[in-house]
Amino acid sequence: MLCIVFGLSLLDRTNISAAYIAGLGADLRLTIENRYNIALLVFFIGYGLFELPSNYVIRRVGARLWLPFLIIAWGACVLGMGFVHSWKTLTVLRALLGVFEAGLFPGAVYIIGSWYRQFETAKRVSVFYMAALLASGFGPIFAYALSLIRVGDGMFRRGWRWIFIIEGIATIVVGFIAPFFLVEFPEKVKFLTERQKHIAVSRVTMEKKGAHVEHATVKEMLKMLADWKLGVYCLQYFIAASSVYSLAFFQPIILRQGMGFSYAKAQLLSSPPYIFTVFASLAGAWVSDKIRMRWPILVGQSVVAIVGLIIVLYGGPPGVRYFGLFLATWGTQANVPASLAYGQNQTARVQKRAVVAAAMISIGAAGGVTGSSIFQAKDAPQYLPGMWATISMQILYSVATFCMSMHLKRMNKLADQGSRPALEGVEGFRYAP
């Protein structure tokens, strides 16, 4: 159910790019004064601000109540976009969409981190993210089909409206169904006995007996945020998110304007790179858990992204550049769940995992602002500044990840030798570099 809901979430936040080339851009005059960029980036204001408060609420209210409320609310926003006549109204709805979508991703990662142990998480987070990505990978094809709908002689003859209307209704329906299928946190579920609940909670906490606290206070959360390592995890996720959003928002436009494909081909060719990415990323996550190391996979995927982006820029024939898009999509998308798993694996306490997930994804919202603004209409068709900004950030990602992992490896060695106190304040805990 988390996969289905997150798939709709990705679909609903990125379908604006499909609507744009289906007539939204012309009808609302989004090419004037960077209106399209503004409509994209306002999403991330609320998205960034409400991540941490949402993870504070979800453990107290419960996932089966909180998440369906958010799903129905953002579905209503998407539905409303099908009826807009002004770019300002579209922008307001995009801002509200960010507020309501904010709680899903960190909440889902928090739930997964509450059920699975250190070297069990990469596969699970990747399956969650990639299954959703597979659904959204078919988004451009689905959007193309919806854009062909024509009803009456008025505004409903515009196909882009039906992209928002149908997808908004689908999200609302799923929101009403979700409470029957979503799984709660281990201590809240009804299908386990009290003993089983104790085992489920104990197996993921590396803490001493009696040290487990169900809810962190605001003061404790602020103390957790002061950990300098969290800054590195946030940098990783900022880069991963900005790269993903820049490609998601502008890939159909690059295919249409940059590579010269027709409208129909640009929509249809947007999906195969995502489908390839799903299988390649799951393979990387499996290898990472198998070898019990994170950094070789993270850095390797970042290098693949760099190579792919350079091919997209300088590959020459459209076919070669399109191959580069496969590599770029894989390298950038795969490091989103991998970076989240990396942050969760370096965190011993379950309460702190909620803060780490929310903080990382909040900073990812700033990455979304970057990703939605570095590709400017004036730079078409190659979008040279945006492409090189993305390449530069991926280089920084590789360097930062390698250096951080070597530091964590050294801390593990010192702890093994007994020359350091308990890592993360928990006896027996070791980082997963």
Let me know the average pLDDT.
87
CATH topology: Growth Hormone, Chain: A
Number of DSSP-assigned strands: 0
Q: How much of the polypeptide forms β-strand, as a percent range?
A: under 5%
Report the CATH C-level class.
Answer: Mainly Alpha
**Percent of residues in helical segments?**
over 70%
Major sheet attributes: none
Helix/strand order, N-terminal first:
HHHHHHHHHHHHHHHHHHH
Based on the structure, what is the oligomeric state of the protein chains? single chain
Contiguous uncertain segments of 5+ residues:
207-213
Short descriptors:
single chain; 433 residues; mainly alpha; Growth Hormone, Chain: A; 19 helices; 74% helix; 0% strand; MFS_dom; MFS; transmembrane; transport
Task: Summarize this structure briefly.
The protein has 19 helices and no strands. The protein is mainly α and 433 residues long. Residues 1-409 form the Major facilitator superfamily (MFS) profile domain.
